[in-house]
Predict the 3D structure of the following.
Amino acid sequence: MTLSAPALPRLAVTAGEPAGIGPELLIRLAATSLAANFVAVTDRALLQRAAVRCGLPLELIDDDGTAVYQRRPGSLRLRHVPLAIEETPGRPDPRNAHHVLATLTEAADGCMAGRYDAIVTAPLQKSSINEAGIRFSGHTEFFAERARADVVMMLASPELRVALVTTHLPLSAVSAAITRETLTRTLRIVQAELVVKFKLAKPRIAVLGINPHAGEGGHMGHEEIDTVIPVLNALRDEGMLLIGPLPADTAFVPAQRERYDAVLAMYHDQALPVLKSEAFDRTVNLTLGLPFIRTSVDHGTALDLAGSGQADPASLIAAAQMAMNLVAPS
């Protein structure tokens, strides 16, 4: 007896800022042979114009929610969300802010309702949304609020996973932001997501110190003694496999990497330069803690490239591939 092929994973893909490179990246993603049912959540004419700029054929099929078992390269299902005004590449228009937020709302609500298996996001322009009079911090915060979830940012490449305790804070504010409660909450989320989404039964998490040499026994700061070590010891008593606190300057050498499955860094620039220098075009931004899978490119809207049809789709393709991997049953 021949078993029927499974339906392709349904990935809601948002195009981000209409005047940025997102729509063109989505066209190039559609041109691949990736075996996913990509549902573009954006404006029909926006994608058609982007396809012309890229010089690629495009077939748009209105999404009716039915299962798809094969996808032709160049084809996309579409959940049409109209623009307020036609885009001008390279020049974001705040009048389209509500369009951008409507695409995120459809993607998030659709995932929570079971219409989509995951969300993949192209970059958006936060400043344009704020200029429309809408307070907006970014994708991560929007999805966290929509899902009413505590979240953690993780950036991952095929070789390395790095989660962050703090994200976009000035260095002067980092130490005060890292409390026992915050660190405990973050580690619990990372642990749970490594088990559920990455199928690691006993994940090993390396935790970096805050200070040089992880404080060197209090000679270079007391945050490790006062905050980090007590939290790690308490969570170890619960059965978590935690390594550290490790000095950040040696945590990424090959001999150390063999010891862990993921790294928890204390602040943005502590670990991300290592990751991005190794795999910039293969690094994916994930939001941990959501009740659905969300992956994203790890770059901005590249307004200087918008409209040229020349933007590199590697990061969006990597984000889609990771979403597919996370959706697939183990």
